[in-house]
Amino acid sequence: MTTPRLRKFWTLLILLGGMAGSMFVAGQWAWQHSLHDESDSVQRQLALYGQTLAQRIDRYRTLPEVLALDAQLQDALSRALSPAEVEQLNLKLEQANGASQSSTLTLLNHEGLAVAASNWRTATSNVGVDYSFRPYVQQALAQGRGSFYGIGVTTGEPGYFLSQAIRDASGQLLGLIAIKIALQELEREWLQTPDIVLASDAHGVVFLASQDAWRYRLLEPLGDEERRELNATRQYVDQPLRPLAWRVDERMDNGGRLVRMESSDLPALPGRVLWQSQPLPGTPWQLHLVHETHSSIADSRWAAAAGGGGWLALGLLVLFVRQRQRLANLRQRSRQELETVLHQHAQELRTAQDGIVQAAQQAAQQTDTGLSRSLEHLPQGVVIIDADLKLVAWNSRYVELFRFPSDLMRVGQPIADLLRHNARRGLLGPGPVHEAIERRLAHLRSGTPHLHESAKDDGTVLEIRGNPLPEGGFVTSYADITSYKNAARELRSLADALEQRVADRTRDLDAARREAEQANRYKTRFVAAAVHDLLQPLNAARMFTSLLRSHLQGDAERRTVDSIDGALASQDAILSSLLDISRMESGQLDVHIRDVALGPVLQVLAHNFGVLAESQGLKLSCVPTRAVVRTDENLLRRILQNFVSNAIRYSRRGRIVVGCRRVAGHGGDQLRIEVHDQGPGIPEALQREIFEEFRRLDEGRADNRGAGLGLAIVERLGRVLGHEIGLRSQLGRGSVFWVCVPLGDPAAVQLQHPPPPVAAPAIALQPADDAPLHGSSAWVIEDDGPTCAATRALLERWGCQVPLAGGAPEALAHAQPGQAPQLVLLDVHLGPTHHGPDVYTALCERWGQAPSVILVTAERDATLRRQAAERGWGFLAKPVRAPALRALMSQTLLRLTQGSSP
């Protein structure tokens, strides 16, 4: 193998070997790290399961103690009972059992015989059965109380038994009361987790399991003494106890184990699983959790890929640096070789020039006719003159270039004659001929070398080079460089043309950009105006439906009105979404980035959507957090509201969970806020399309599918805020939508929101209380006639007086000094010539008063809302909901009443 091939072989071998080693080391490190994290998480989960089980048992623990003090039960165990008295005891225990929701209550005498039981009506009644062999009976009779888990010998149902001894006033043992607690509901709760949850007793028998195949398994082989004990107590009756075949591959520091299941009658588990065990305090039981290690394996693979990629990148970087060094050395060597070649060419040129001069000297010494054989091989035209400026020698190329007549070309002919001949032909340029000839002769006499170019009338360009001879005289060469000049001229023309084309294209692109921006501005203004005009009749329609609902008595008619109002609300949402998209595309959306506490935002989200989720049979929960993020609070809330509303719309059952987790981002640590649902899932092919306008899935509720604009708004809001939006979904398993937000500064939030001062107690206003509106007066200033009529009718329905409901001209005409209403409902756009706030200012001048104002407008500009808040005005966006209008008017009138009271 040659040396270059051997070098390539070793390079490839080191690259691949290092990559394999890096993948192994990174994969093992990530595997161990992720596995320990999973083990800690599983341990915490086990602790929660243990708390749940202990709380379930503790809930019933006091019942036997309370019943043991019952005088009726004590009296029943101290004497023989009649059938009627036994029936009364059965009814008493049945009633107590029904209140506690336990499984069975049983009263036993001191011999272990069941005297009465809560299940006395069933075919498997405990009454009359001897339970003296049961440990909980023996423990209660001997120690005062007892506990035991087993399968009921009478009912065949498993449960946990708690017993309490019953004594008379003198302390004599009369019997015991026992309660059997059913734990099957706990197993059903365990089904919600993908892991396998087990509970085993002191003998290693699994008696509780989230999967039926794992129940009544032996974790360890039973000894002879243990088998005799189980048979004597009949703990598991005739239930076969099958061994669980498993092998421990690795033990972890925190008690976890990596095991491999070998039982063939169990559902197949992929490879090794994580087995975590934890004792249950106060009992001889152990809780176990079997967890698949998919996440750790995935982390290991990703880390291995990252390690291999890192090594490969490092290797390629080293090879790149080596290649750059090799190329640098090669360029240095090439530069040196080029300099050598240039030096050689320069030497050759000097040699050629010396050859021309030498040939000219030989021609001057040897020729008699002027034509020199030593000059004929040269491509240039050459002429030689002596110190007296007379012709000595020339070649035929010189005669050809200037087309001299033959009688002029002879040895001894003065060079001035040749110059005059050329001057008559106009080859010496403009100006006096005599001066041009004298100037050239003076130059020849001085013997100064020269190099210049000369253009002839026919377009020929000559390069003229002159050198003096050592013994006097001058040699001049004329080279035809016309083709070179034409090529250079064409290159310049092409470059100029390209520059002109680039300039034209740039100018066209600028014009197109300006046209696009202008069209976008026109489109934004058009959409805003169109939405404003569409919201006017929509607002009137919602007002009329609110008024119509109060006139209807039947449920069917009210449901019809509710359906109409729901359709109008959906139309309002679509128009609002279109307006938001238009603002975001035009860059007119106000963004206020600051540090925001995320906990209150999630609390408001849970409060606002919790009732809606419950009405759909869903459970919405938000995980509490103290995190602080840097974002625009209102825009982030809109993103989360869209996520939650979509989850409610497309989920038919289960839970919706909103939580957050810390992740690493490009700009440092970030918080990823996630919304988990148990909906139908989204196919991978549609996971990008659903963020486009009017894209929606068909799996939503038929009565509430939306318009397909919510996620399009979310995607644009994410781009405006610089927050990454994403999702992951699996068909049949649900979806997770998330947004990544930079972490903020908690100290900045405390400065922004200091503790509020103690305020005076507020007056609670019930939504249905219209007392502040009765007898009050209000003007409705609105340029839309149907909206004026609907608003006036609605206010009068609430007991409010409406002296005027019309446009700006009517309001200005009816305004009289001292006759201002208590409240003004004011629109912003009152026709092409009137602006709402300006009209209000003119009205105040005529009234001499400044009544309270509620702006009712289709404009949803944040600046307008802020200006209204600064002036102490209320603000409602069209279309207006009647309850919102009534509440805001009542609050405004109450503030007026409180402000005027002493």
Which strand-content bin applies to the residues?
Answer: 15-25%
Query: Any idea what the shape is?
Result: flat
Low-confidence stretches: 699-705, 755-769
Say what oligomer this is. single chain
The whole-number mean of residue pLDDT values reads 80
Q: Give the termini separation.
A: 108 Å
- Global structural class: alpha+beta
Please state how the strands of the largest beta sheet are arranged side by side. 7-6-13-12-11-10
DSSP helical segment count? 21
Q: How many E-type strands? A: 30
Rg over C-alpha atoms, rounded to the nearest angstrom = 51 Å
Percent in helix: 40-55%
How is the main sheet built? 6 strands, antiparallel
Comma- or semicolon-separated keywords:
single chain; 902 residues; alpha+beta; 6-stranded antiparallel sheet; 5-stranded antiparallel sheet; 21 helices; flat
Characterise the protein shown here.
Residues 699-705 and 755-769 have low confidence and may be disordered. α9 (415-424) runs antiparallel to α10 (433-446). The protein has 21 helices and 30 strands. The chain has a 6-stranded antiparallel β-sheet. β26, α17 (785-797) and β27 form a beta-alpha-beta unit. With 902 residues, the protein is of the alpha+beta class.
Q: How is the secondary structure organized here?
A:
Layout: H1 3-67, H2 71-77, H3 83-100, E1 104-109, E2 114-117, H4 135-143, E3 145-151, E4 158-167, E5 173-181, H5 184-190, E6 196-200, E7 206-209, E8 217-218, H6 224-233, E9 242-243, E10 246-251, E11 257-261, E12 273-279, E13 286-292, H7 294-366, E14 381-385, E15 391-394, H8 396-402, H9 415-424, H10 433-446, E16 450-455, E17 461-468, E18 474-480, H11 482-551, H12 555-586, E19 594-597, H13 598-615, E20 619-622, E21 628-631, H14 633-650, E22 655-665, E23 668-676, H15 710-721, E24 724-730, E25 734-742, H16 746-752, E26 777-781, H17 785-797, E27 801-806, H18 808-814, E28 823-826, H19 836-847, E29 852-857, H20 862-870, E30 874-877, H21 882-900
Parallel strand pairs: 8-9, 20-22, 26-27, 26-28, 28-29, 29-30
Antiparallel strand pairs: 1-2, 1-5, 3-4, 4-5, 6-7, 6-13, 10-11, 11-12, 12-13, 14-15, 14-18, 16-17, 17-18, 19-21, 22-23, 23-25, 24-25
Helix pairs in contact: 1-7, 9-10, 11-12, 11-17, 12-15, 13-14, 14-15
